[in-house]
Structure formats: C-alpha cells, structure tokens
Write a structure and sequence with these properties.
Structural class: alpha/beta
Oligomer: single chain
Order of helices and strands: HEHEHEHEHEHHHHHEHHEEHHEEEHEEEH
Strand content: 15-25%
Strand order of the largest sheet: 6-8-7-9-10-11-12-14-13
Radius of gyration: 23 Å
Number of helices: 16
Distance between the termini: 36 Å
Number of strands: 14
Shape: globular
Largest sheet: 9 strands, mixed
Length: 419
Amino acid sequence: MEREFKREYYLEQLIQRKGNGLIKIVTGIRRCGKSYLLRTLFKRNLLENGVDESHIIEMAFDLYDNIEYRNPKVFYPWAKEQLRDGEKYYFLLDEVQLLDEFVSVLNGLADKKNCDVYVTGSNAKFLSKDIATEFGGRGDEIHMYPLSFSEFMSVFEGNRYDGWNEYITYGGIPLVVLAESEEQKIKMLDSLFEETYLNDIKNRNKIRNVGEMKAVLDVLASAIGSLTNPNKLQKTFKSVNQSKITATTITKYIEYLEDAFLIEAANRYDIRGKSYIGTPLKYYFTDMGLRNSRIKYRQMEVTHSMENVIYNELRMRGFSVDVGNLKIVENDTEGKPIKKQLEVDFICNKGSKRYYIQSAYMLGNEEKMEQEIRPFKRINDSFKKIVITSDTPKPFYNEDGILMMNVYDFLLNPESLEL
C-alpha cells in the first residue's frame, strides 16, 4: 500500500481560505510537499466537494511541456479561455515564480469574480515580508514546512523512540522519508543540497565564490542553537582559515540561506525591558536531515537537535518564536550585588497567547531541574511556563506551577501546550 502524508494542517488552511478573494500563496523550502498539497490533496478535496474537474485549471510552470506558458502573453489569454461559464473556477498554479510578470497576471485573474487562485513558489520573490507589498494586499500566505514529527510518525513503521532517532537524523523532506534505506536517504539529502538548494541560491544571487558560502553554511550547521553574528563568524574564519571574508559578505550569505527557507533566525527579546536586543541571534535549520548532510552526519548531539526540532514545531504551529533574555541582579557569596543574564530558550507568541519554553534533553537531578526553571521563577507574569524534556514520563505541573512534558507528548499532540 502506498504511504501518503495527509498534510491536514495545511490542507485545512487552504480549505478555510476558499473564495476569500485573495491569491492563496503556498511558500516553503523546495521539496517540502507544496505541489502535492495543491495539486493532489487540495484538488482531491475540491472534487470530493462537488467541483467539476473542468473547473479546476492546473499549470506546473517548472515542466518542460509548459515552458511556453511562462510568457504572460501566452498564459493569460489561455487562462481566460478556460472560463467558459459564470461558475467558480479554481486555478492551481505550481512554481509560479517562473511565470514572467506573475504578480500582474495573478492580480488580473483574482480580479475576476469567478476565479479562485492558488499558487506555490519557492524562492526569494515569495518571502513573507514581500507578499503584502508585491501583491498590493491581495496575497494570502500559507507557509509550509517539511514533515512535522507527528506527520512523519503517521507512516513510520516502528515505535516513537526509533522514529525520533530517524527523524532527527534524516529529517522530514517527504521524498527522503519515503526512501527505503539509510544509504538512499543520505544520497538523496546530499544530492538535494548540492544540486537543488545550493544551485538555486548560486544562480539566483549570481554567487561567484560558492565555496565561501558553503563554509558559512557549515559553521551555522555546527552551531545550531548557539548565539552568533556575522562579526563573530568573520573572526572565526580569519583565525581558523586565514580567510579574508568580510562580515558584510557573511551577512549576505545568511540572507540568501534564509531567502531559500533553509534556515531561520530567532531574535533575542529582553523580557523585562519588553524590547528586542538585536545581535547575536540563533539560527535553526528548517530540516534536520539537510543540516546533518552539511556536517556529514557527525557531531549530531541530541541536545541541540531536540532544540531545533522544538523550534520548527512551534513555527509550524504558527507561533512567532524569540529567544528570551532576562537580566537579574543577585548577591554573590560576599553579599555584593552582581548582574547576570538568564536565558529562556523560546518565547512563543500567537495573538494573545504566549508561552515560555525551555528545552532540556535530560533533567536527571534536582540541580539540573533548578537550573532550567530558574529563569521562569524570575519572570513576573502569568503566561504558561513549560520545560520540554526526554525523560519526563508524562505531563505534570510541579509545585511552582511549571508544566513538565516529554518531547514526544509535545510533538505528537497538537494541543500539547494547552494541557
């Protein structure tokens, strides 16, 4: 039996937006499943809900057969010809960044009362920050990630512990997950990185020194969950490799990697001062398999891997995620006041909801537990505080009102933060 990922979270978002007059834009890293979501799962839903197949208009701009339609003077008249009556037509357009003048064309289609437009795109023209301005307020973004752990486990034949080891090693790119052997997975990840992602970035940004960018990427892959900035990286390159790369160039490379949705930055937030601090930032990889491909599947410490997976899960659930910084004053052994900075791994915000979260792979003993919850005790608000670990048997609240939860309950239950 063929294994299929239902992608229900994203499918539901498309269904909820049906007929809202906006252009639904599915963004995300290449190969994360955008085309399958749109042209298989969503199309199937339309058909099951009574939409006639002749009213579903599809176009994949990345296929050689459709290369002529990348010209708007060919595509737009063709699209209008498909409208043969006053009933609703659904346009499902794949890799639409390959269509010249695509913003004008899509706005033109969306302007027609019986057109509902859905598109996918993978590159910098589809960055969240640009969609509102590019489409003059008519773009409605659904950002898609590789498979969550819960989606991954829906087809994994084994227990959650074995599934977890597989997931943090090879990640959640659907093609990779469905590959039969470890050897195939590694080959596929390495090939995707070189031939798809890096090639894309090189060609789009006209990069001459690809080796330099790879070096930056490799340092970021080795330092997930660590505070870093371009100046710090530049000093590392100078001392280790005698490299003359500048902080400005490093900043550009990091932007390119973010534009390709390979990495995301988490900003630091001053909890007391209620303001952003700026650099250094933390960088997380959108997919653990892609990250591990860069470090040749070595240095895969589970502590940072778990932190990265938790970050991605929170982002998949629609939270904005920052790193919390808490400045405190404590007396030393001689009673003298000293300033200290405590860190909260994640501050998650969505609408009026906020959660403070610590990722602690193993608590082990009282001392480690106290270390993790120490920042929480100094935060003077009533938002929920949670420690996610791998060695808590089941969720419980401790005497300080802090929710202790294991990583499996967190990842496998979409309502876990509400427990």
